[in-house]
Every structure is written in C-alpha cells, then in structure tokens.
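From the methods appendix. Each design record in this collection lists the tokenized structure first, followed by the designed amino acid sequence. Records were kept in a plain field format so they could be parsed without special tools. The example shown here is representative of the layout used throughout.

RECORD:
FOLD TOKENS (192 positions):
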C-alpha cells in the first residue's frame, strides 16, 4: 500500500512537471502578432499578419532541417550570437523559423556555412485551422482538407500551397500542443 502511494505521488509530480513545461513553452516563446479579421467557423479564422523575416532550409527529413536552423539560432553563426527561438515552426516542403520581430535579414547574424535562406515575408492574410495532439502526415492531410473545404464553401481564393505551423517542442504534452494548417488567401492590399 505504501509503495502504491509513493508511486501515485511520483506519477502526479512527473505529470505536473510535464504540464508545467508545456505551459512554459506555450507562454514563454515569442510568436508573431496578428489580427483576427474573420472567424469562418469554430476552427478556422482569417488573420492579418505583418511583415516577418524567416530563415529556411530544405533537408532530407524534418529533423535534419530543424538541426540546421537550430544550430544557427543556438550560436553557430559567424557572430557566435544566440537568436531567440520563436513559434511557430513552419513546414511546407521547406522548414522555416520566424526570426524575432527585432531582427531583419540585415541585422541577423550571418550563417556559418549552413544552407539557410533569408526571406522577408510581406504582410498577408492567412486562413488557419487549429488542432492539437500530433502532426502525422495523415492527420495533417485531413486537417488541410478541412481548411480548404471551408474556404471553397465560402468562395475564398487561395495563393500558393498550404503549410503546417507547429508551436510546441516535442516534449510538450500532446493534449497541450497547438498546431495549425494555413494558407495565404487573396485579400485587398494592406497598408501598414
């Protein structure tokens, strides 16, 4: 009986630490600001994003791509400067990190030989569908189809291909994870 109690308390403490880590990741990392322009249904919203600077790479796997970008932000750049991690990590055939708002391509550290491309992403409107748990290919495909179906039903025109946005690290409890599929939509020009 004593062993069972100790085991239950240990499991409770570990679960609390795991959830605490998930909460820290959710609220402790910079995310790009956006304005919700319209809610299309319970899961889909149209957002207006401002200009952003992205770093991107193409790897043979997500892990390979992530390693290249992570090495850069963790100080393996010519200046030896750490760059704060932001969320989400964006994948669409390439993997991209959004640089902190205070950095631009001109002010960011120079890569140290990594195959990294800088892109200034213009202000744009994005339709996004939120979901939690895991991001396996079948689930992402299903969520992408849901998003595109909502847009078709409303006659909203899209630009480019859908992309996946992951906001949490792999250690965040799956039920706390924030994932989204998104696609740029045609909109009237925005002046900032």
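DESIGN:
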């Amino acid at each position: 009986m004593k062993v069972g109690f100790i085991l239950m308390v240990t499991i409770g403490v570990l679960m609390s630490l795991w959830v605490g880590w998930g909460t820290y990741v959710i609220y402790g990392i910079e995310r790009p600001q956006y304005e919700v322009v319209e809610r299309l249904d319970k899961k889909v919203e149209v957002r207006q994003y401002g200009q952003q600077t992205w770093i991107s790479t193409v790897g043979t796997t997500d892990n390979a791509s992530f390693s290249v970008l992570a090495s850069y932000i963790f100080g393996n750049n010519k200046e030896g400067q750490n760059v704060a991690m932001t969320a989400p990590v964006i994948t669409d055939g390439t993997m991209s990190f959004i640089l902190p708002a205070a950095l631009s391509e001109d002010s960011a550290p120079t890569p140290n030989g990594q195959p990294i491309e800088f892109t200034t992403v213009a202000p744009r409107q994005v339709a996004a569908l939120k979901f939690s748990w895991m991001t396996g290919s079948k689930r992402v495909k299903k969520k992408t189809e849901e998003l595109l179906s909502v847009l078709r039903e409303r006659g909203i025109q899209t630009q480019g291909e859908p992309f996946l946005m992951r906001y949490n690290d792999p250690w965040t409890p799956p039920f706390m994870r924030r994932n989204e599929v998104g696609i740029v939509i045609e909109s009237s020009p925005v002046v900032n």
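APPENDIX NOTE: Helices lie at 2-27, 62-73, 137-153.
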